[in-house]
């Protein structure tokens, strides 16, 4: 078992507040990597989450490191749990979610199933997982890691990476990325979409607004 020192958080309140106004799909117009597999889904509806990754790696039946991680993580952190491919045992349920909410964590992401879904929904706390399971983990204390590099949803996650998520899915913004650059592009895109909606309201065809018609003509396709 391994518990590494906490990584310095680089997510400022300004960046966090601006990211909360942006959808992961907007950044997806340019960025093609860092998006978790769509099998990891939001277990609670109408959520938006931004925070720093607090990483956990744990094996099938052992949840000692999950209990320790939720006790170490700080306000604004997102618990990101690598289950090493296990899809049978739920390492997160009502008590873990309750503890995370009380510590003001931003959310929990599990590359595996969770349990106690009704209680989780009643807590209205952002939780993502691959699904549900009635079989839970136990306190064994054999293996696991905290604050190390993990894999979650097909994406490498480093401690302190910025996580952005909504009902559509999750995006990991690596510390190596210039978040300001991608954020500015996304903000410009959001502003452009407002203008596009106004033009649609005025009766203009979408294909004309986006220049799709022009691209079709340049390809030799004619239409009425």
UniProtKB/TrEMBL annotation:
<comment type="subunit">
    <text>Homotrimer.</text>
</comment>
<dbReference type="InterPro" id="IPR005493">
    <property type="entry name" value="RraA/RraA-like"/>
</dbReference>
<comment type="function">
    <text>Catalyzes the aldol cleavage of 4-hydroxy-4-methyl-2-oxoglutarate (HMG) into 2 molecules of pyruvate. Also contains a secondary oxaloacetate (OAA) decarboxylase activity due to the common pyruvate enolate transition state formed following C-C bond cleavage in the retro-aldol and decarboxylation reactions.</text>
</comment>
<protein>
    <recommendedName>
        <fullName>Putative 4-hydroxy-4-methyl-2-oxoglutarate aldolase</fullName>
        <ecNumber>4.1.1.112</ecNumber>
        <ecNumber>4.1.3.17</ecNumber>
    </recommendedName>
</protein>
<dbReference type="Pfam" id="PF03737">
    <property type="entry name" value="RraA-like"/>
</dbReference>
<dbReference type="InterPro" id="IPR036704">
    <property type="entry name" value="RraA/RraA-like_sf"/>
</dbReference>
<comment type="similarity">
    <text>Belongs to the class II aldolase/RraA-like family.</text>
</comment>
């Amino acid at each position: 078992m391994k518990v590494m020192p906490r990584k310095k958080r680089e997510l400022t309140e300004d960046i966090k507040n601006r990211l909360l106004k942006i959808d992961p799909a907007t950044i997806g117009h340019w960025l093609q990597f860092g998006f978790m597999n769509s099998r990891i889904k939001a277990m609670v509806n109408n959520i938006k989450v931004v925070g720093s990754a607090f990483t956990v790696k744990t094996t099938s039946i052992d949840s000692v490191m999950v209990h320790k991680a939720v006790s170490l993580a700080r306000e604004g952190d997102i618990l990101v749990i690598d289950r090493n491919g296990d899809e049978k045992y739920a390492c997160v349920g009502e008590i873990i979610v309750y503890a995370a909410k009380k510590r003001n964590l931003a959310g929990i992401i599990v590359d595996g199933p969770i349990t106690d879904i009704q209680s989780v929904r009643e807590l209205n706390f952002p939780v993502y997982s691959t699904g549900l399971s009635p079989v839970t983990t136990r306190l064994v204390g054999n293996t696991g890691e905290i604050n190390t590099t993990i894999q979650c949803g097909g994406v490498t996650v480093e401690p302190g990476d910025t996580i952005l998520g909504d009902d559509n899915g999750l995006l990991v913004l690596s510390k190596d990325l210039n978040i300001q650059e991608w954020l500015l592009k996304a903000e410009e895109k959001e502003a452009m979409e407002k203008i596009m909606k106004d033009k649609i309201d005025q009766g203009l065809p979408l294909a004309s607004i986006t220049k799709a018609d022009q691209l079709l003509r340049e390809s030799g396709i004619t239409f009425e």
